[in-house]
Structure formats: C-alpha cells, structure tokens
Specification:
This protein is mostly beta strands. The chain folds into 2 domains: 150 residues, Jelly Rolls (Sandwich); 110 residues, Jelly Rolls (Sandwich). The chain is built from no helices and 21 strands. The strands form 5 sheets. The protein has a 5-stranded antiparallel beta sheet with strand order 2-4-10-7-8, with no helix packed on it. Strands 14, 15, 17, 18 and 20 form a 5-stranded antiparallel beta sheet that branches. The protein is globular, with a radius of gyration of 20 Å. The protein starts with a strand and ends with a strand.
C-alpha cells in the first residue's frame, strides 16, 4: 500500500517567519535555506492514514524520499505531535515533536529510506514527521515522498480484496511576473492512478498552459493538449501521455505582459490489499 505525503514543507531557523518555496525541492541541512551559514533546515512531512482498513496491521512501514542533490548522509526522523499546513507552516509555527527519533538512516544516490513502523504506534488519522540532521552538509529531495506499507502474514493473499483510494493535493501560487515562460514544481506521478491539473488565471492577461511530462525529472516535453486561459478563468486538464514526472508550463500571450496563476495538482492513488476470508 502506497500513501503519498499530503503535506510537505521546509522550515529554516534563521528565517523563523518565512514560508519557503518547495519548487526546487525539500531541504535538510545544518545550513540555512540560502546557504548563508546562519541556521538549519528541516523538512516536514504528513501522511494520511484514514485509508488503512480497520483490522489490518502493518508488518513493514517505510518512508521513501528521492534525492536531487547533496552531500548529506545521516538523517534522523521525529514524529510530530500535531498536524501542519504545508503552505503556511514556518519555523516558529512548526509542530512539536517527540524527544527521541523513531528512525535514522543514510542517504545515497538511490534515495533515502526510513523505517516508520515504530512511529505508527497509536497513530490514527495521520503520521507527521520532521526530518533533521546533526551532520555537516545538505540534502535536497524531491517534493513527492511516500509511505509504503506491507501487512502482516495472514492478512494478504486469498481471493477477497479491499480497494482504497487515497487523495493527495499540491497547491502553488504564481505572483505577477513578466517572465515569458514559467514552470510549476516537478510532480512525481509514479504512484498516481488519477491525476488532474487545475490552473486559474489570477492576472489581467490571457496565457497558454500545457502539462509537461518527463522520464527523469530533468528533460521535459509538452503533452498533446494546450489551452488558453483568460483572466479569472479556471481550466482543468489531465495528461494524455504518461511520464513519471510532470509539471505545468505557463506561457505569456506577449513578452511584455505579466502572468499570475493558482495551480492545483490533485491525485488519487489506488491500493489493492488481498485479504484471506
């Protein structure tokens, strides 16, 4: 069973009131967000647990993160004591955590995996996690962490299956800018069964919008559908082609006019759990 993070954010001690953009990734380091050397960055994650069927006991639970770049190795994970809103949380408003970490691990080129089974004890509605380090260096990870669950022996197999749909959402706001072409953060769609992109024009001039797809998060091509979005208009689209990584591209109608937009990426992940009768 795969559960994508429904909330994700980076907070920084040197800017306790600032909400940081996550279009470049989520950062974990002993340095501040801009590498000025005056603070540290932590990544906050939140996973919904309501889709786990009652009576099903996880045998394994692992949080997976995909690194973009960095030289940080040792990462510690703490369980949050309250929920947070990814677009609003700051260092000052971040949730408190348990005193002891529930897991620690080492990042590699293949990714970062953290044993989350101890953290699931007594969790009902959500699992909140804070990732930090005590080691020098920094790590930048993609904004699509997920929690993978495997269930106890005797609860999988057989001919009766339970299907659960897990909803996740990403929201971004583009403030007015004269940049001719703009891109949303990269979205990892590998665990999404259904995916819809919503784009609202919050500016005063029309713009064109495309979904772009990519095999590796670096090389992108336009999907087959393109739209013109007028001021105040909300447009929705789903990708015609599939690629693991996707993003929204916005192109101004003219080089000298600004664009502004709100973007929603909403997804459902289907989980099939085979249970003996």
């Amino acid at each position: 069973m795969v559960i994508p993070a429904c909330q994700a954010a980076t907070v920084c001690s040197c800017c306790p009131e600032v909400r940081f953009p996550i279009d470049a990734g989520l950062k974990i380091s002993l340095d501040d967000f801009f590498n000025y050397g005056c603070g540290q960055c932590r990544t906050l994650l939140q996973f919904p647990l309501s889709a786990i069927p009652k009576g099903m006991e996880p045998k394994n639970a692992t949080i997976y993160l995909s690194p973009i770049k960095g030289n940080l190795k040792a990462v510690r994970a703490f369980r949050n004591l309250s929920q947070f809103e990814g677009r609003e949380v700051t260092w000052r408003t971040r949730p408190k955590t348990e005193k002891a970490p529930f897991a620690s691990s080492y990042a590699s080129e293949d990714g970062l995996a953290l044993n989350a089974l101890p953290a699931l004890e007594n969790c009902e509605d959500f699992l909140g996690v804070t990732l930090e380090t005590k080691s020098p260096g920094s790590l930048l990870v993609r904004e699509a962490p997920y929690l993978r669950l495997r269930f106890a022996e005797g609860q999988e197999g057989g001919d009766k299956h339970v299907v659960s749909n897990i909803f996740s959402e990403r929201r971004y706001s583009f403030s007015p800018s004269f940049q001719l072409v703009r891109y949303s953060p990269v979205y990892d769609a590998s665990s999404s069964a259904t995916l819809t992109f919503f784009v609202k024009n919050t500016g005063d001039h029309p713009f064109a919008f495309n979904i772009q797809i990519s095999p590796d998060g670096e090389q992108f091509m336009d999907d087959l559908q393109a739209y013109t979005v007028n001021p105040g208009e909300l447009m929705a689209s789903s990708p015609y082609l599939f690629g693991r990584f996707m993003r929204v591209k916005i192109v101004a109608s003219q080089p000298d006019v600004p664009t502004a937009a709100d973007i929603w990426i909403q997804a459902q992940t289907e989980n099939y759990i085979f249970k003996k009768i």
